[in-house]
Structure formats: structure tokens, C-alpha cells
Amino acid sequence: VLSNRLSEDQNNKIAVFEAGGSSDIWKVKMPLALLYTMHDPKYNWKYYSEP
Predict the structure, then answer these.
(1) Within-domain flag for 9
(2) What is the SS3 string spanning the chain?
(3) Residue 27: which residues within 8 A CB-CB, separation 6 or more?
(4) What's the burial of 33, exposed, middle or buried (CB within 10 Å: 0-12/13-18/19+)?
(5) Total structural domains in the chain?
(6) Domain contains 12
(7) Could you tell me the sign of the dihedral formed by the alpha carbons of 36, 16, 21, 1, in that order?
(8) How far are the Cα atoms of 20, 33, 35, 41 from residue 17, in angstroms, in the given order?
């Protein structure tokens, strides 16, 4: 949805990246499981970005 909205303006340039393995596990699919994944280095690579 975000990339679609950003691409509506022809002046914007966007890139979408996906990394990692399969996300077919309950910790990734269940929103409340964020508590498990946000401190696990298997899921949180601790990369930071700036606009």
C-alpha cells in the first residue's frame, strides 16, 4: 500500500526491498508476537534508516 501511494507521484522514486527467509511461522504472523520478535536477532537485524 505504501509503495503504491508513493508511486502515484511521478516525481518520487521508490525501491522496495525484502530480506530474510520464510515468514510462515506464528511469531511473524501474529501481531502480538512482536514482543517475541523485536528482541530476537533472528528477526530484528537492528538496521536503522533515515528519511
Answers:
(1) no
(2) CHHHHHCCCCCCCCCCCCCCCCCCCHHHHCHHHHHHHCCCCCCCCCCCCCC
(3) 33, 36, 37, 43
(4) middle
(5) 1
(6) no
(7) positive
(8) 10, 23, 24, 19
Rounded Cα–Cα distance for residues 5 and 13 (Å): 12
Flag whether the pTM goes above 0.90. Answer: no
Question: Is residue 2 included in any domain, yes or no?
Answer: no
Q: What is the pLDDT along the chain (51 residues), one digit of tens a residue?
A: 888 888 898 888 888 887 777 778 888 888 888 888 888 888 888 888 877
Alpha carbons 4 and 24: distance in angstroms, whole number: 24
The domain containing residue 32 runs over which residues? Answer: 22-51
